[in-house]
Write a structure and sequence with these properties.
By secondary structure, the protein is mainly alpha-helical. Helix content is about 65%, strand content about 10%. The chain has a two-stranded antiparallel ribbon with strand order 1-2. A hairpin with a 3-residue loop joins strand 1 and strand 2.
């Protein structure tokens, strides 16, 4: 369920090119679209993983394994987007002029 919400946020970000994150981080244009890839990735990865790995498992074991796997994928996707936003944030460069001379 959570990966669906993250996926929808990722699609919105990909289409409109703007993502606002906590800690006063805002991504626009290409930076937002790259972060959107991190947000979109958990859902397709969990579907592929469930399809490939879950074929030979019992239902109870598959549910316990994939519950943790989905949580891990979502945390990695959101964490990757936040880390990317932090590393590529725009820095305000203040020019230091010496007016005393």
């Amino acid at each position: 369920m959570v990966e669906m919400v993250v996926f929808i946020i990722g699609i919105y970000t990909l289409l409109f090119g703007q993502l606002k994150l906590p800690w006063n981080l805002t991504l626009k244009n290409w930076r937002a679209r790259i972060a959107a890839v991190f947000l979109i990735a958990p859902l397709p990865l969990s579907i592929l993983l469930g399809r490939e790995v879950g074929q030979g498992l019992s239902v109870e074991k598959a549910q316990s394994i994939f519950g943790l796997t989905e949580l891990l994928l979502v945390v990695l996707g959101v964490g990757g987007a936040i880390l990317f936003a932090y590393l590529t944030r725009s820095r305000d460069v203040k020019s230091h002029t010496d007016e005393s001379l």
